[in-house]
Amino acid sequence: MHKVLSTFKRPDVRKALAAVRKFYGANPLHLLALIGCFALAGYAALQAGADGKWPVMLAWFAAAVIGHDLVVFPLYALADRSLAGALHALWPRHATTAPLVPAVNHIRVPALGTGLLFLLFFPGIIQQGRQTYLAATGRTQEPYLGRWLLLVAALFAISAIIYAVRLGHALHRRRMAGRDLR
User: Fold this and answer.
1) Residue 52 — φ and ψ, nearest 5°?
2) Cβ partners under 8 Å of residue 99, min gap 6
């Protein structure tokens, strides 16, 4: 192993790696990882399409891409811009100091978690397949909405606690820096 690692320290190997990095724009290991990922994705597509259902799989993939790029992405981009605009309205740029701790990511992260959990539990929340679920488990789907709402509340509460802790640390640092100046 030491012999292999010492090979990368030789000037000619370093020059070759630098040339690859300059041509490719990233580390050669990144290229190797991408090739491996494409090979794995190709193998998975061949295995999934081996039973003749590849047209259906391709249609679902195309619908997902179109649905995301043309419908969902503009909606959450608009929501993010609205959030940023609302936060800038609360803390205008012409203020003399910037906010101690930016709040935007403390709203974005739980909102993203909320959206992903909603997508995950959507069939249960709207009680799709109610009879099948009841027959298979002996339980109803009624708790899904309440539990999803509890998860949403927990995500935002945890984010608020983290924001409060970060804000407290920033205020403490500012106070201590003010004492050092005196």
Assistant:
1) 85, 10
2) 91
Distance of alpha carbon 43 from alpha carbon 36, whole angstroms: 11
* Residue 169 DSSP symbol: H
First to last CA, the chain: 57
Which candidate, 32, 9, 13, places its Cα nearest to that of 24?
A: 32
Check the CA dihedral 63-69-72-74 and report its sign: negative
Of 60, 67, 66, 30, give the one whose Cα is nearest residue 45.
60
148 close to 118: Cβ distance less than 8 angstroms: yes
CA distances from 11 to 3, 58, 89 (A): 15, 48, 56
Contact indicator for 163, 103 with CB cutoff of 8 Å: yes
Digit-coded pLDDT (tens) for 114-167: 999 998 999 999 988 889 988 999 999 889 999 999 999 999 999 999 999 999
* Own/partner long-range contacts of 171-178 (Cβ < 8 Å, ≥24 apart): 171/100, 174/100
In 10 A of CB 110, how many CB atoms? Answer: 21
Q: Report the Cα 84 to chain-centroid distance in Å.
A: 18
